[in-house]
Amino acid sequence: TTRSWDFMGFNETVKRNLTVESDVIVGVIDSGIWPESESFSDEGFGPPPKKWKGSCKGGQNFTCNNKLVGAQVYGQDSARDTEGHGTHTASTAAGNNVEDVSFFGLAKGTARGGVPSARIAAYKVCSEEGCASADILAAFDDAIADGVDLITISIGADSSSEFYQDPIAIGAFHAAEKGILVMQSAGNSGTSGPQSVISVAPWKLTVAASTMDRLFIDKVVLGNGETLTGFSINSFSLNRTKFPLVYGLQATSDCDETSARICEIGCLNSSLVKNKIVLCDEFGGQEEAHVAGALGSILQTSIDNVSFVVPLPALALSIDNYDSVKSYLSSNEQPEAEILKSETIEDSAAPVVASFSSRGPNLIVPEILKPDISAPGVDILAAYSPAASPSSIATDERRVKYNIISGTSMSCPHVAGVAAYVKTFHPDWSPSAIKSALMTTAFPMDPSNNPDGEFAYGSGHVNPVKAINPGLVYDTVKGDNIRFLCSIGYGEGTIRQISGDNSSCPENSENLLPRDFNYPSLTAAVPAGDSFTVNFHRTVTNVGVARSTYNVELSSNSKLDVKVTPEVLSFKSLKEKKSYNVTVTGQALGNSSMLSTSLVWSDGTHSVRSPIVIHTYE
Amino acid sequence: GAVEEDRKVYIAYLGSLPGGEYFPSSHHSSMLQAVFKQSSVANYLIRSYSRSFNGFAAKLSDEEAKKLASMKGVVSVFPSKVYYLQ
Q1: 3-class DSSP state for residue A579?
Q2: Chain A residues with CB inside 8 Å of B85's CB?
Q3: What confidence category does residue A450 fall into, taking pLDDT thresholds of 50, 70 and 90?
Q4: Which of A 213-252 lie inside 8 A of B, CB atoms?
Q5: Quick one: CA torsion of A310, A315, A319, A320, rounded to 10 degrees?
Q6: Contact A310, A317 (CB under 8 A)
Q7: Cβ-based contacts of A154 with chain B (< 8 Å)
Q8: Which residues of chain B make contact with A134, given a CB cutoff of 8 A?
């Protein structure tokens, strides 16, 4: 956060509604929190807002304050964060401005949350063994009743599931019914390919992770003078000294060849790696290198542009660069190298969606685009727990107050911070209106740098400054979520039970289509091999200027013919609603393919952008 | 008659809280009593969700979970899985 907010143009001087901001409570369902972190100091904070109905039940040795107004723990003794993760996400969403922080001099700057004057309520549901569904649901039950304004949850399952079996979808549904928007991380299974996004319900805001313009790199200088660049967050300096290189395969006593090459746990012989830099064919080999007492490590990785904190002088090289080092090692009698301390450089390609960030389309409801939006989630510096190792490797005995980590976990609280910021200007907006504001004002992302397009980044990259003034919003009204459930086949009895009232599906609910849910993006799944015509129906609400006229603008895509009726929307008052229809036609698509374009409603001041995605994934 | 070791934590989701006078814990206990056909269920009821929506977590065998799922007013019964930080 020493760079991420500025990267989005959300600098420290943006206009803020401080009085309202200090009444906003962000609920964080995570691994707990470190209450003594400067990011959660309550200096300058008054008592909690009157609407706060929660309590401080953080367990042993845990005290709340006027910044950290509530804490609750499930199935454990203390809400104190021993993982670091919950402290990191909470401080990203709503941590104080803390000047002059860094990770051993790297990424120096002011760490800050999206809404530094807001309050935090922490719900600890995770331990090092994971996070039980039963506890997650309990945290939602409490957070909603406690009176939080938003909930950020950087937790997910291995795969997506039906809404009625997903505790986060269930919790978020009831949160939305009470006016609380829930942000969830999209998941970190992007390398598994399409349909890996695990947050699929339309009432949640699902967040992908992307890079920012600060890239961490590290360099290794070989004995022959060749310098290779790789990725790591390496805080160690070898002081211009080269050390002998040894391959994991040559430094084992007990392991088979495959295990030795990747430096599997227990494979390295300490006496063979002492004062040497060991090469391991997998990134995970760093742990064994550290345990065995190697001086440093060179690791192979298939993930570019993401750097992880390492417990010893180490860096990850691409397959080509790693092969160069192996070739140098095998062709020299006394191979040696120096690993330099990491540095940061400017990455002009940013934002690029991280390869680990889970991809759409949505496996459960293919006609709701997921993820919804992208935000910085790579190499984020934020508050951390001094009880945890910064590299997450147990033998790394360093302890830090601020750490650099990556994941959709890190992007999610960025969007939560922006959603909270929007709420400070529009306290009466519904969760769907806030969600729409974030999505329709998002920076378009460059598909040439992001080949998975909308399935990687959704509507684009969150744009906090624009999000407070979207012009039009795709709001949902009471009953819309229930009608959506009807459209995906939920029966009458179930609907009544979920809603708790006499809600029923419309008579012709078999004709309701999920793609007609008033969503800020437009997605249709069509059969492969046939030309297609699909229609969308949408309603926008004027939240910009009372008397205004919006014209539709369509971006070009030679393979999609898009018609919008009407092409002009004229408003006479605020909160006025206008509906329009979109017809998209195109020629037959192959299996597992997608096409996209976008429509923008513009009044010359506001640009209300929605992606249109047509795909053939089943 | 299920063997204790075969039981795992299931979540019973009952939707929104009903209006009017409603005592979630006793309702949840009576549902479990109907499943177990015994009056003492305190050891099996792990958690009641009753502040913002309706449901509970309980230790059940697969058969007991199926029986619970078929009861009136139950939206879904599903195993409590392990989720992960992302």
Answers
A1: strand
A2: 30-31, 83, 85, 126, 131, 154-155, 407, 409
A3: very high
A4: none
A5: 170
A6: no
A7: 85-86
A8: 9, 11, 46-47, 57, 80
Contact between residue A28 and residue A143 where contact means Cβ atoms under 8 Å apart: no
| pLDDT single digits (tens) A252-311 | 988 999 999 999 999 999 999 999 999 999 999 999 999 999 999 999 998 888 999 999
ipTM surpasses cut 0.90: yes
Sole residue written with tokens 């956060």: A1
Number of Cβ pairs < 8 A linking chain A and chain B: 117
DSSP for residue A455: H
Phi, psi of A50, deg, nearest 5: -60, -30
DSSP string, B4-52: GGG-EEEEEE--SPPSSS--HHHHHHHHHHHHHTSS--TTTEEEEE-SS
- Encoding tokens for residue A250? 């040559």
Nearest to B83 among A133, A145, A408 (CB): A133
For A614, list phi and psi in degrees, rounded to 5.
-120, 130
Percent above pLDDT 90 for chain A: 94
A204 touches chain B (CB under 8 A): no
- The answer to whether A134 contacts B76, with C-beta atoms less than 8 Å apart, is no
Crossing angle of the two packed helices A492-499 and A480-487, in degrees rounded to 10: 150
Cα B65 from chain centroid (whole Å)? 8
- Comparing CA positions, the residue from A443, A419, A417 lying closest to residue A430 is A419
Which of A283, A289, A300, A220 is CA-nearest to residue A248?
A: A289
Q: Do B47 and A136 touch (CB under 8 A)?
A: no
Query: B82 vs A30: CB contact, 8 Å cut-off?
Result: no
Split at pLDDT 50, 70, 90, the class of A589 is very high
What residues pair up with A601 in beta bridges, in sequence order?
Answer: A552, A608
- If DSSP codes are grouped into helix, strand and coil, which group holds residue A527? coil
- For B83, the closest of A144, A155, A496 (CB atoms) is A155
Could you report the per-residue pLDDT of B65-77, keeping only the tens digit for each?
Answer: 999 999 999 999 9
CB burial of A2-18 (b: ≥16 within 10 Å; e: otherwise) equals bbbbbbbebeeeeeebe
- Tokens 């907006």 -> residue: A429
DSSP codes of every residue in A247-272 = EGGGGBSS--HHHHHTT-TT-B-HHH
pLDDT for the residue B1: 57
DSSP string across A353-383? B-TTS---S-SS-TTS-SS-EEEE-SSEEEE
Residue B4 predicted with pLDDT over 80: no
Give tens-digit pLDDT for A315-325.
999 999 999 99
Whole-angstrom Cα distance, residue A216 to residue A3? 12
**At which residue do the structure tokens 């993982």 appear?**
A83
Q: What is each CA distance from A485 to A32, A116, B58, in whole angstroms? A: 33, 37, 27
Give the chain A residue whose CA is nearest to the CA of B50: A141
Residue A57 forms contact with B (CB below 8 Å)? no
Alpha-carbon distance B11 to A189, whole Å?
26
Give which of A502, A399, A567, A455 is closest to A200, Cα–Cα. Answer: A455
- Closest chain A C-alpha to B34 CA, distance in angstroms: 20
Distance in angstroms (rounded) separating the CA atoms of residues A329 and A323: 10
> What is the average pLDDT across A493-500?
86
